[in-house]
Design a protein that fits this description.
3 helices
Length: about 170
Amino acid sequence: MSKVVGGFVAAGLAVGPLVLAYAVGAPPGTVLAVGAAGFFLLSTAFRPVGACFGQLRRRLGLLLREVTYPRDDVVALRERVAALEGGATVLDGKAEERYRALAELRRTVDAVGLSAHGRADATDRRIAALAREFEATVNRLTDNEQIITGLKAFLRLLRSAEGTTGAAAP
């Protein structure tokens, strides 16, 4: 309610000088009196209109500064994005390098596997040949064992013959 009363008081204070200037300034109904009243009426609108334009100008200036110069958080975000893009580029390069190294390692492992299989086959063949030779040698030793047993018996016979001849001689 007090705002409404204050509004009427402000309007009365603005219109009061207008009525006073109209009544005192010239005889009523003349062009000069109407012109003076119109000037006073128009001058009462200058101050609020000027204040409104001043406020609009300040607000537009503030908005223009915010639009022209990005806020600090936007600048920081742009810097972080640029840094992350640079890091992603470096990581992409390193990943490509690792893929190439992995492919080379796979080729090397395949080559080593083939070489190992070849060497294992050759070793298996050598072991099989050694086993056959060992078996043949063992078979010959069995035959030789009979010869060795015969030789041992012959040596025992010789020793026993020596023992009997040696005992008879003295």
